[in-house]
Amino acid sequence: MKIKSSNIGYPRIGENREWKKVLELFWSDQLNEEQFEKEMEHIRLSHLKKQQEKGIDLIPIGDFSYYDHVLDTAAMFGLIPERFKTEKNELTLHTYFEIARGSNGKIASEMTKWFNTNYHYIVPELKDAQPVLGKNRLLDLYLEAKLKLGIEGKPVILGPITLVSLSKGYDEQKRAELLHSLIPLYINVFKQLNEAGAKWIQVDEPILVKNIDKDTIEEFKEVYTAFNKEVSEVNMILQTYFESLEFYQEIIELPIQGFGLDFVHDAGKNLDNLKKYGFPSDKVLFAGVIDGRNIWKSGLMKKRTLVNELAGMIDKDHLIIQPSCSLLHVPVTVKSEQKIDTQIKDALSFADEKLEEVVLLTKVTNNEASVIELEKHDQAIAALSYSTYRNVKNVQEAINILNDYSSERTDVTKRKEVQAERFALPLLPTTTIGSFPQTKEVRKERLKWRKGELTTEQYEEYIKAEIKKWIGIQEELGLDVLVHGEFERTDMVEFFGEKLEGIAITKFGWVQSYGSRCVKPPVIFGDVFCKETMTVKETVYAQTLTTKPVKGMLTGPVTIINWSFVRDDIDRTDVLNQMALAIRSEVEALEASGIKMIQVDEAALREGLPLKEEKTEAYLNAAVHAFRLATSSVEADTQIHTHMCYSNFDDIIQAIDALDADVISIETSRSHGELIASFEQHHYNKGIGLGVYDIHSPRVPSLEEISQNINRALEVLDYRAFWVNPDCGLKTRGEAETIAALKIMVEAAHQFREKLSTIETV
After folding, report:
1. Mean local confidence (pLDDT), 719-744
2. What is the distance between the alpha carbons of residues 537 and 533, in angstroms, rounded to a whole number?
3. What average pLDDT does the structure give for the chain?
């Protein structure tokens, strides 16, 4: 009897972001469809071959995507939004990308976070949906791997209940109808895969780790009983991740051959349930024991103890070792990182290294490798733990006296009065979220500077020229509150990661955020502190160019933490508070330099929300305290702004208020104003800007579209508190479209301002 190894999913982007480059060449018409498909096939097969060479027994097939796996599943079952349907009702590659990106006046489908990760998925729209199975992409991909690489892969598909649960546009009655109509379509997919020789099929149902109810459990019983009845010969894995399984006893009794459980992020609950209630002897446990979401080496000696404990309860031939979730959420390989301190690098483990950990742990458990190899592997973890990086006396002393730092500001009513007098802004003040287009020229100059082809002085002069150019553009457009444009910044988190101590920036540590958009999360490896000012120079320069207020632009502590790979040797809240104190010092430096509007973005506050409701209060309390710790030491006439990305805010509206920011801006346009309803039931007495157009689509919004969004917001919000701004930063947009869109936005604001001015004078 032998334990086998498995993988749940692999990064799509490639070691050098080959996937991203092919996508963007196709979108810019530099590749035709045939060339695009050929390039993507090459990338896809190379990923499978690598996993084969690593020694993974069960290799996932179908986790590779041209954009997003949720969109793939919806598209395969004909769940195409009405506005994108063609006369033939066929899903072309063009239509697929239209749904994700929008075009020709068609607004893209909403995009939101995949559970509590930094990955965005495209939200299926199920209003009037009539599911139908189109091309079985999983069958094609399974046969491709089998015929071209000799890989008997494990097809992966998003399960029907999670698919419907993550969708929008239907009521509870329609939900039942949708599930009933999807059952035979899934069965057809499973039958075709079985006939082609697939031995295992992975059905992802991560909705099972959320606080679901009994009705959802009944849905699982109905759906999976139907699957088993029609395709009982198929070995199906019900795969969960990110948290512990809800309704453990009921779920493991489903007529399924295998269950995938997370033993990393479950807080021990999955293991406790296994001990308490046992595990069916005729089923296979796919044990997620290697962390698939963070980038630190696993302590394999401890993992060996866990696997041995599992093996004591389950026959070895019914136990399979794998990562805790898809490796989509980590970079591809550590081997490319040549510039990171060796002590840090040796403790890192990206996707390829995690597969090696899975295989090594499997071999040792099967007595095919020595325990000495595990001990050798773990040495790097201990070395970093005892290093000076993780034992900075001043930082640790500050955390010990945290209560000595104020986190309270002057009453908001008083702040409004003094800020209104200082800034004298018009009704519906217009502004942007922070960044302006990072053109090829900007990136080229930055690269030349990094290579030493430009001196620091030359590079800084170039950045100053860009700032001056865009201050002028903003003045000409008539914006009321300006920004310097962030041309010196690669990314809103990476930039601060480069400036703060205790954080490393990788060179190739890219992960997919949405579509072809990739980010490099900073690696928080040690105690965090601020050695010198980070943003003062550029912001103060911009302010010298205009009499209008220029916002200082910072990223908040919660977002930096949530968009970074965080050290796992101390409590996450301690790391968060270290970050808050570092940002606090920069806020104070900006204010001391005369910058009286300071935006501290918490774009990712909600996405860090725990999946379990019982953990929510503790998370929000820590997040609110960290933000206030970072922003509460300023004077009453200094205006604190913040920004948040796509979210359902109903469940955190109290926390948003508790941040005590003077002005908050929120992305809302892709959800067509639906998020505005969050404020209908809650009186919000501070400034607020609900994004009036979507910056993620390569299109210029119409005046009518922006006006509708403003009007919808003003039905709920006090017009005296409302700000007009785009959804998010404009870094990824082109210059021409940015200027055109902002011009329309300002025009819309002025039209409403004229109407409201009449009301004010009556």
Report:
1. 93
2. 8
3. 94
